[in-house]
Amino acid sequence: MPKPLGDEDGSDGHSSKICRFYLWPYLATPINTSGEFVVPMKRSVRPLFSILLLIVFAVTLSSRNVVHQSLGSAELDTNVLVQIPPRSVLNATLLKYAAIDIGEAQSKQEIEQFLEGNFGSLGRYRTFATWRRFNHRDIRARTSMGTPLLLRSPNFYRYWLDFRRVLHDWARNKRFQPEIMSELVQLVKHPIDKYNGLVDSDKRYSSCAIVGNSGILLKSDYGELIDSHEVVIRLNNARTEGYEGKVGSKTSISFVNSNILHLCARREGCFCHPYGVNVPIVMYICQPVHFLDYTICNSSHKAPLLVTDAGFDVLCARIVKYYSLKRFVERTGKSLEEWGSAHDGSMFHYSSGMQAIMLALGICDKVSIFGYGKSDSAKHHYHTNQKAELHLHDYEAEYSFYHDLVERPQVIPFISDNFKIPPVVMYQ
């Protein structure tokens, strides 16, 4: 019996048999009439190797195509499932101009003067050292001229030291801090939770309603819906009595600007609690000198009286200025350098309502906005007869910001990419 083929090319006799009878019979080893195998020449094996190499090459290409299509399909599926919105390419020039604080130099100079005790011509603050609450004249003790001695209360020195301390700390933090949004739970929610007897938790409130003061609230009955939120934030001591069906009655946080506290400081005991003495107050500083009112009134407040972090103030200022600059250029076609004269640049400021929304973004999982917007037939404030808006603010720019919060939060500038903006719903 002759030896089977295959030892020379690395194959065995069994594999040759399979090829001979099942794959390519026309390449099988020739058989003579006697039934014995005839040993072929070596060159007869070369066509077999060539075809095998072609087959292997074709199979390899087919496999790569299948794998590529599978990966492409998987990548498509991943994109469909994740759907991460791309970050908007922001205008670098607008970002640069929005980061410039026109009134920064003047503000620093004023703060230095206040820390030195120089209140210049700031009205009632100029005579701070002679306030009646800090001094009294002892008619029994007289000078050599017979004039009653002016005795200064020990509280004067305590208030003065507290004023210098809080103003210095606030001014030191007044710089751009993009990560500040992630710190609001610790800065604001923790003190409020502690006052309410709750354990400090890094979890945000489940839902928050921000109630603005626009007269458009009188056109809808949102009271019950507003009160259904875990936390309700109201602005600048706006009245609720008599408007419960429109604006609700629940108040969890009172958000005010320091001008409100400045008015409250004139009252006996600095009473500034229209929603009750147990409602915490969060306040942003309009003028550094208002820290004097804060220092005096803070001791009389039972509930927390919190001042917003200066870095948070800077972030809010930059965002609003960015939208104001953008709107100014688009509407007028003028250069960015002309924006300051059109908006009184050194006095330009965001509204209380804007910063209250920013606060809610940092401490709430869901945010509902009520009473923001205007109408020709509506009053500026639902609880007053004021019709005109303050030129200090650019409300139209802020409305553009609110629109982006609802529709495309990824385009909002200056907020860190590490902070996730919660869902926002705006009720008209």
TrEMBL record:
Entry membrane topology: Single-pass type II membrane protein
GO cellular component terms attached to this protein's record: Golgi membrane
Molecular function in Gene Ontology: sialyltransferase activity
Record localization: Golgi apparatus membrane
Domain of life: Eukaryota
Transmembrane helix keyword on record: yes
Name of the protein in question: Uncharacterized protein
